[in-house]
Specification:
The complex is a heterodimer. Chain A contains four helices and ten strands. Chain A is globular and about 60 Å long. The longest helix of chain A is centred in the C-terminal third of the chain and has 9 residues, at 160-168. Chain A has a single domain, classed as 4-Layer Sandwich (Double-stranded beta-helix), CATH 3.60.160.10. In chain A, 17% of the residues lie in helices and 42% in strands. In chain A, strands 2, 4, 5, 7, 8, 9 and 10 form a seven-stranded antiparallel β-sheet that branches. The model of chain A has no long low-confidence stretch (mean pLDDT 83). Chain B contains three helices and 17 strands. Classes of the chains: A alpha+beta, B mainly beta. Chain A binds chain B through residues 36-38, 98-101, 103, 107-112, 115-116, 130-131, 134-135, 138-141, 146, 148, 155, 157-159, 162-163, 165-171, and chain B through 6-7, 10-13, 15, 28-29, 31-38, 40-42, 64-66, 68, 78, 80, 82, 84-86, 211, 215-216, 218-220, 222-225.
Amino acid sequence: MSGVLKKFFGGESLFVNRFTNPTRQSLQVVLSQSTIGDIAEAQVYENNLCFQPGAYIASTPEIKLGVRWAGLASWFSGEGLFKLQASGQGTVFFGAYGGLTRKKINGDFIVDTGHLVAYESGMKMSVKMAGGLLGSITSGEGFVNKITGKGTIYLQSRSIDGLVQFLSSKV
Amino acid sequence: MKIELLQQPDSTIARVTLNTGEEIVAEAGAMVAMSGYLQASTTLRQGKGGGIFGGLKRMIGGESLFLSVFRSPTPENTLFLAPKMLGDMLHYKMGASGLVVQAGSYLASTSDVNIDLGFQGFKSLFSGESIFWLDMGGHGDVLLSSFGAIYEVPVKGEYIVDTGHIVAFEKTLKFEITKPPGSWLSAFLGGEGLVCRFKGNGRLFCQTHNAPAFGQAVGSRLPPR
């Protein structure tokens, strides 16, 4: 049942593969993602890590994955209504379209829609317009995420929306 | 102001650190993330290359009508800027010579840099590329973006580049749009279209890929709207 939730609300596949090494020698597994871009690893212990739909790739077995309600603010800012949350202790791998930049936040920080890949839970998210109603339209930014609090976030340097925008003008 | 380019060369993003009172102008939509204390506003830009007319001219040049201005009221504020397409970025210091920028390659500049629309004449009308180029002057920092990687060519004498692969070049260079060397027939059959022939001394920046060509290659396979 939780797989179904993750599939439809967390943007992930219905089933996950579990790779176990039954031999005594070290074996390799190679993992990748569908988009062109960086893959990062993050350690999870006390801090839960939340992912935007589609960003999660793999995790060590002690990591628990759950689907959380992300809120209307998240949906307005072009992310999902639900988010995937990794808790427990271990390592998580996740990917992006373009480069991944890790950024520590203390205070207010603004991220354009479609560029936030992962963030530590405990920070407050709200959606706002980029610089007032007129400014929001004219700046081409539309809605932006406003993150308040202390923690780490991961940004992707490109967004799929940007590519889609470019290509749809060429059809 | 400190400008660092991260994630080079395939999906470059610029991290700009602004101190009190400093400001940077960027193409609309270029902001990826920023400190909540930065003041963002949009402008048609006053003065040279500014106003409604300047904005309209920029739009014809393939850029956005409006520009975003980011101003820092407090020290040490961070701003991340990136283009839409995968590729590299170039941090150019405006000096004595002006810079001619291919439409679409402009990303950001500091406030003492002038952006104007340069009409390069009918000679570029037949090149199949944009007729308009951005004509940049003044002094300060300029951030340019490319589709693919950027490579610099220090031109001394003559140099020929396909028109779709030019990012920018210094104004000390003269250029003409011409056919590739050889006969017209081989130029036509070779599929090169028209090329840009540069003359003089100066720096030329080229990109390894051509965004309109990529758009055509993918766009022609997408179902019509």
